[in-house]
Amino acid sequence: MQISKYSASGNDFLIFHTLIERDYSKLAKKLCHRHKGVGADGLIVLVPSSECDFKWLFYNCDGSYAAMCGNGTRACAHYAFTNKLAKKKMTFLTGAGLVNSTVKGNIVKSELTEVSKLLNKFNEEDREWHFYNVGVPHLVTKVKNLNEYNKKLASKMRYKYDANVNFVLQTKESLHVRTYERGVENETSACGTGMAASFYSLHVEGLVGNCAKVYPASKEELNLSISKGRLFLKGKVVKVFETNI
Question: What number is the average pLDDT over the span 113-120?
Answer without folding.
Answer: 94
